[in-house]
Design brief:
The structure holds two protein chains of two kinds.
Chain A (H helix, E strand, L loop, with lengths): L4 H15 L2 H5 L5 H27 L6 E3 L8 E3 L3 H24 L9 H20 L3 H19 L6 H32 L14 H19 L8 H7 L2 H11 L1 H13 L5 H23 L4 H28 L3 H36 L10 H4 L1 H14 L6 H15 L15 H24 L16 H19 L5 H12 L8 H4 L2 H28 L2 E4 L17 H11 L1 H4 L2 E3 L14 E3 L3 H17 L11 H18 L2
Antiparallel strand pairs in A: 1-2, 4-5
Helix pairs in contact in A: 1-3, 1-5, 3-4, 3-5, 4-5, 4-10, 4-14, 4-19, 5-6, 6-7, 6-10, 7-8, 7-9, 8-11, 9-10, 9-13, 10-14, 11-13, 12-13, 12-18, 13-14, 13-17, 13-18, 14-16, 14-17, 14-19, 14-20, 16-18, 16-19, 17-19
Chain B lengths: L1 H12 L1 H15 L9 H11 L2 E4 L4 H19 L15 H21 L4 H32 L4 H4 L3 H4 L2 H21 L18 H4 L5 H26 L7 H25 L8 H22 L1
Classes of the chains: A mainly alpha, B mainly alpha.
Chain lengths: 663, 304
Amino acid sequence: MPMTGNASLLLSGVIVTAASGVPGLLFGRRSQLGQWITTSLAIVGSGAGLVGAVAGLVGPMTPVLRFPSPIPQADVVLAADSLSAFFLVPVFLISLLGSIYGLDYWRQTEHQENGRKLRLFYGLLTAALAVLILARNSVTFLFGWEIMAVSAFFLVSTDDQDAQVREAGWLYLAASHAATLCLFAMFALLYGLTGSFDLAPLPAAALTPAGTTAIFLLALAGFGLKAGIMPLHFWLPSAHAMAPSHVSAVMSGVLIKTGIYGLVRMTSLLPQPPVWWGGLLLALGVVSAVLGVAFALGQHDLKRLLAYHSIENIGIIVIGLALALLGRALDQDIWVTLGLAGCLLHVWNHALFKSLLFLSAGSVIHSQHTREIDHLGGLAKVMPWTAVCFLIGATAICGLPPLNGFVSEFLIYSGLLRTLGLGREPGFPVAAFAVPALALMGALAVACFVKVFGVVFLGVSRVPHSHPTHESPWTMLFPQGVLAVCCFAIGLGPTLVAPVLDRTIVVWSGKFVAEPALAQAAALPQISAAAIFLLAALAVGAAALNWRLRTQPLGWTETWGCGYTGPTPRMQYTASSFAQFLVMLFGWALRPTVHQPRLTSLFPQAAKFQSHVPEVVLDRLVMPTFHLAARILFWFRVMQQGSVQIYLVYVFAILVLLLLVYR
Amino acid sequence: MIYNGIHLLLVAAFPPLLLGIINRTKAFFGGRQGPPVLQPYFDLWRLLRKGSVQSTTTTWIFRFGPIVSLTTAFFAALLIPLGPDRAPLSFAGDLLLFAYLLALGRFFLVLAALDTGSAFEGMGAAREVTFACFAEPAMFFCLLVLAKVTGSLRMVELFHGSLFAGTGTTGAPLLLVLMSWFLLMLAENCRIPFDDPNTHLELTMIHEVIVLDHSGPMLALLQQGAAIKLFVFASLLVRLAVPLDFQNPWVSYPVFVAAVCLVAVLLGIVESVMARLRMVLVPHVLTAAAVTAAFGFVLLVTLQ
């Protein structure tokens, strides 16, 4: 079959990354050489894939590649249309930067027992992500999906000496397989309706309303579990927190987006959606966005906090998709353009700034050996570059200008404001209630990131350093720098990505041209000009102030203690006290647990105060349900003998039974 | 061009006067003579020429905070109409830029406070960002009503003296928005009853404790930024309440300036006759502001 340049680049990217960890296995546990070879292969593979994906995004589309397979009707079918290429760009970019980061973050000499395993599954995960996004056939898709799920499980449980890590890994694996189960059911239904495993637009004639509804709901459950839409997010915080930081970056930046990719792809294949699909997604998106950030506020583990922000951002992305679905249901093209453009751009943006934040957080953890926010402080002085990178990521994730988060949130806000029905346009004003909800979310995000950055990087350290503090090596700073530059690039020049978004919208809506084009639908040039102007004004202002302060007398002294002369670092505001008021206000959802001493005598003893925001859905819903199920299913334990032969007999028996029934 | 010049001049030079008027009004109610109306200008001039003292705990964030605070307030002021229906910068959706510029200013202002490591400034910072979580939805409910009434997403057209231009169905919602916006103006600018700019106990402050460690030119920048923010909110209140779509700008500018001065007098009266709320009640009042505007929105949508 003919293969264009970018198709072969993509394929070689997949193959090289998949195999990148293998040479490492041939070297000894302490070998630096194995680590370098493995990482170089991963970089080359991801680089080739990245170039192929970008070429597919701006150049001609790749043809469909079909490789015959022994399973009937289930050839391996791969193609990169704009939608696939769009999701492939962050896959390859983040995993490329992550493998550079891993060189010093997870050095082979320091992690002899699991360094090779980590790099093997890291490459495999990248390849699996690419395959599932390229797949045009449900069997190929599930193949990629399953390898992704399993290799991510091994990555989460890299540090499997730790019981908490194992627990997070198992929880992730169970949730992941529940998602796969939903997808199996969905693809089976699809096959039943169309008689084909191909992922192609479904003929309206083949579909019944009940069948389409079932497919949509199964897709929502399966992909929603993977994306972490509330209340299906319960696996996400612990998995993201326990994985090594560059793996967290890939998981949060890219892996959970496969759920979004699945939803976007499936909604593009299904015919005209009813209004309630969009409405349901909108409600779920708003709940995820607001409660995700509320939960984040209550956290005091740096990476767990970032993980909850992923749930928030998935909420924003889902709101965009919901708006596009509403637009299609109600024939409002501008809602489709703005909603889907916002959804897709936020997928990129979140991949950029959340990976940036996870990598910066990883640098902090690498230097301080703790994830506990309240044990940190004053790091901006010793790790200035990490602090700058974290600050850029924090500003971007709060959706503040002049960075990229503002652009995608601007698109989604503009689309939602259009549902008001401005002038003579028809409207759907219920959807506009999402606007104040997004504003609430934005304000909460600002509160949360002020808290994190302030407590971790500003002030002075809260506990005496037991480890020498140092700035990270260049291998860890360079990936952060690249991501920070990307955040600025999209924030200052959103017009550059508009054509790419238009092409992707065309694929989703099944039209020949995006109507209206994004450039007409949103004032992107003005946003760009405003962002550049703002940045220039800030730079001039900062230079002027610095000059002024240099020409005037400037005294240095300790912080004004309001008359108190013996302040200690422990008197600083902590993460818990900073968020206390908001956590209390959201107490109905967060259910914080507080252990405080009861003071009885006139001269109380030294006492401890503890507060903690647990994972409510997991503790109050999922775990009780599973314990109940375990008790009910207790009697089936006799069938579980733990011996492979017996399971083979079961499989054989079921097969015979099925053959007898469906002869 | 000339209008842009007037706009810039008003934004740069007028805001401190509002503070002077407020203080003079409060002095009148207190039976004192009070400082001259131009005192805030003298203060700024003095601060700009003074040296400063900086905490050894701080980093570059501490200096960057005042810059961002002033720049964003100034930028936001360029998006709103003052006298006539025009602004130096205006595009569809600029209301989002307006809201997020103010959020950016708050973000860095509060970070600059945390940079000192002081518990008092941490306290003020926590309060500032917490109360913003109530103020932002209220502001967006107001903007939703205005967008629905005017059918536009530009600040210039949203704030169009619409209370009197409207028909029967828009009058009631707009009145609710006006009430909500007045509360927002008090809260966002840390005025009584939300915060007392003249209080002397750090434990009870919001804005004043955030800027506690800044001095000299940095403090001047912060004060000018705060004054511009007050001016922005007062201007928009005037645009909501006063029918300012006069064709002749030479009439509308003086009327506008007079109306903003009246708002300052009104603020002075409010501060003279009210006490500061207990801190735990602040969210209640802000929720009331949000619900008022939300009720206006529901009313508008159901009436049409």
